[in-house]
Amino acid sequence: MKTTGIILLVLGILSTLGGILGTIGGREPNLSGLAFVALGGFLIYRANQKKEEAEKKKQWEEGRPDKVQ
Questions:
Q1: Residue range 51-62: average pLDDT?
Q2: Reported pTM
């Protein structure tokens, strides 16, 4: 999920830059790449959250809940 998020984030950034450059060149504004930036950012955030949850669960199962932050 993290890899997909990074790919979507990069594509969104490139698309947004292309839309900005196109707007400067006189075309209609096209900032639809921001949707991919938001989706990519969310996927990266969610992947990190799942990793932290898994670590906390593992510590809890091992009987060390005092080390969970």
A1: 90
A2: 0.78
